Amino acid sequence: MKIDILTIHPQLLQSPFEHSILKRAIDKNLVDVKLWDIRKFSTHKQKSVDDYAFGGGAGMVMMIEPIDNCLQEVKKENQPDEVIYLTPDGEVLSQKLANHLSTLKHIVMICGHYKGVDQRVRDNFVTREVSIGDYVLSGGELAAAVLSDAIIRLIPGVLSDETSALTDSFQDDLLAPPVYTRPMEYKGLKVPEVLFCGDHKKIEEWRHQQSLERTKKLRPHLTKE
Ligand code: 6GU
Asked: What class has domain 2-152?
């Protein structure tokens, strides 16, 4: 998979891809992530990427030209399956959407700032708009990092234990069960007995029951009856 991310703050996005699972996925060539600095595609003397909103009002708007220029450069390499604009008014990210996006070959993400991008970018270049929740961030960069992580970890071969993504919270509309490790007892705090019984069927039943109870309590809308 290839992910191209268009941003005016490429440095802000570097670190998430330089550690842990995302780094390993890149090192294994399972995904190629490229950060594009929109500012480099500005034709203005000052390399400006934003301007005042027509009609007035507070806040600057990101201009169409540097984004168009950058997108054209990205598309020279190959045609993307989706051009995603990260915005608080987009479709709220879900595991279902992450699953779908993880099956694609080439995704472009555009990070907005200020009051957003010129609507003509959204109307003509963007194929999908995604939000990571109903709250406002100062820019799309952190959202793009979240979306990338949610997608990349699902690409076959990225997680060492192939089944571990399948048993994630939400993968079957259930929250994950609690997990424990050594020591068996810490300052009087004990691990549930059932985990030491050695009966794998019984343990799986207990875990499933815990998942159901957690989901009912914490995400009641997921338990359809
Ligand atoms: Cl995708 N962008 C911004 N700026 N804020 C957000 C968001 C995206 N998703 C939730 N809040």
From this structure: alpha beta
Tokens at 204, concatenated: 């799986």
Average pLDDT over residues 98-127: 97
What is the band of 53 on the pLDDT scale with cuts at 50, 70, 90? very high
CA 76/CA 71 separation, integer angstroms: 9
- In terms of DSSP bridges, do strands 2-7 and 106-111 run parallel, antiparallel, or are they unpaired? parallel
Q: Would you say residue 19 has pLDDT above 90? A: yes
Superfamily of domain 169-222: tRNA(m1g37)methyltransferase, domain 2 (1.10.1270.20)
From the CA of 116, how far away is ligand 1's center (Å)?
Answer: 10
For ligand 1, is residue 61 a contact (CB within 6 Å)? Answer: no
Ligand 1 atom nearest 113 alpha carbon: 4
Spans of all domains in the chain: 2-152, 169-222
- Are 71 and 96 in contact by the 8 Å Cβ rule? The answer is no
Segment 59-83 shows an average pLDDT of 97
Counts for the chain of helices (H) and strands (E), in that order: 7, 9
| Beta carbon of 148 within 6 Å of any ligand 1 atom | no
Does the beta carbon of 137 lie inside 6 Å of ligand 1?
A: yes
- Lowest-confidence segment of 24-28, 85-89, 169-173 by average pLDDT: 169-173
Q: What is the mean pLDDT of residues 106-115?
A: 94
Between the CA of 149 and the centroid of ligand 1 the distance, in Å, is 15
pTM flag (> 0.90): yes
